[in-house]
Automatic annotation (TrEMBL):
A GO molecular-function descriptor: phosphoglycerate mutase activity
Residues noted as binding substrate in the record, renumbered to the chain: 36-43, 49-50, 88, 115-118, 126, 142-143, 210-211
UniProt entry tagged with the keyword RNA-binding: no
Stated name of the protein: Phosphoglycerate mutase
Keywords associated with the record: Glycolysis, Isomerase
Segments of this protein annotated with the region Disordered: 146-170
Catalytic activity: (2R)-2-phosphoglycerate = (2R)-3-phosphoglycerate
Active-site residue list: 37 (tele-phosphohistidine intermediate), 115 (proton donor/acceptor)
Residue(s) at site: Transition state stabilizer: 209
PROSITE patterns reported for this sequence: PG_MUTASE (PS00175)
Sequence ranges of Basic and acidic residues compositional bias: 160-170
Enzyme Commission identifier(s): 5.4.2.11
Amino acid sequence: MFAISRSSALLVSRAAFRRSFAAVQAADKHTLVLVRHGESTWNLENVFTGWYDCPLSEKGHGEAQDGGKLIAAEGIKADIAYTSLLKRAIRTLWHVLEQTDRMWIPVNKCWELNERHYGALQGLDKQETVDKYGKDQVLVWRRSYDVPPPPVDKSSPHHPANDERYSGREWPEEFTESLATTLERVVPFYESEIVPKLKAGSTVLIAAHGNSLRALVKHLDSIDESTIAELNIPTGTPLVYELDENLKPIPQPNAIAPLQGRYLGDQDAIRQRIEGVKNQTK
Ligand SMILES: O=C(O)[C@@H](CO)OP(=O)(O)O
């Protein structure tokens, strides 16, 4: 009475095959979620920020909470999170973890994910800087790949040697960063710290900054130096990457080129936010 017919045995083994194939596929797919912090007080005031540690604005708190809700609605469950040493990104991460009910997962705070250091431009009004130096020069400082803004020296409060969170490291007498030098710290950090977690099957969440994330997506999406100059990342908007077994992005439907990951949320509103970042220096 327990004998299984040949056809039902076949059905059982097909179902088992489908299940194990799905498991292999799942193991070969890796999820990485990137979120730029919500609007900060200095974004609101249109001031060059870099490593200056300003908080989120009222609107920025709301953007970060909404970003977290979108991640929760997608059913994405981060296993480990990374952020910078700057409170606008840390607070954004806290909002996302709260909204996704993942406040218990490990969190790593690392200077390598900081915003690009804006040198002597930190603290200057973006529009006044355009009025003084011209739109083209300011665009070169903001978006060119390898032209850094003028540096700060150790007499400046903006120099990292004067901030205890960066103690224990050697900093050059003069400091500033281009996107290229930002990438030189972001990408090795990603490769050495985050890639092993992804390979081990963890879903990874990174809350960081406009330019540290531009550096990371340049690497992930193999974006060339002239195209990356046109790329702006909106505040508080989750960007979801599905990566294949070689950790190459699997192009997502609705991805906004040149990105292969997809932004969560209302796509028209996201395009408007992107334009807003671009238009900070008209
Ligand atoms: O001021 C900054 O640090 C960054 C991000 O807010 O600005 P921008 O978009 O001009 O690079």
